[in-house]
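Notes for week 9. Today we move from apo structures to complexes. The key idea is that a small molecule is not decoration. When we ask for a structure prediction with magnesium ion present, the ligand SMILES becomes part of the input, just like the chain. The input block below holds both the sequence and the ligand string. Read it once before you look at the output, and try to guess where the molecule might sit.
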Amino acid sequence: MSDIETLIKEINSFRDERDWRQFHNPKDLALSLSLEAAELLENFQWKTSKEAVQTNLEDIKDEIADVLVYSLMLCSDLDVDPLKITQAKLKKNKENYPVGKAKGNKAKYSEL
Ligand SMILES: [Mg+2]
C-alpha cells in the first residue's frame, strides 16, 4: 500500500469512527476545501510572505493539511487516484507551459 493510500485509509477511519460520511457529499467537501484554503490565506493577510511564515508557520502547516485532507476525501469518494490525477495535470501543465516559452516567464499559457 502506498503512503497516499495509507493516509486515505487513516482519514476514512477518522471520519467513519465519527459517522461523518453522511455529511460528506462532493459539493460540501469541495466547499470545505475552499474554506480551508481561505483559512490558509488568513495567515498571510496584512503581512509579507516572510512575516507570515515567521509568525504563523505552525498554523500554515495545519491549514495546508486541512486542504490536503479534504482533497483526499474528495478523491476517495469520487474514486479517483490522487497520484494519477496530479501526474495527469502536471503533464497538461508541461504541455501548456513548455520550458522554451515559460522559463522565467509568469505569463498565463494563453499569453505565451
Ligand atoms: Mg482549518
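The mean pLDDT is 96.
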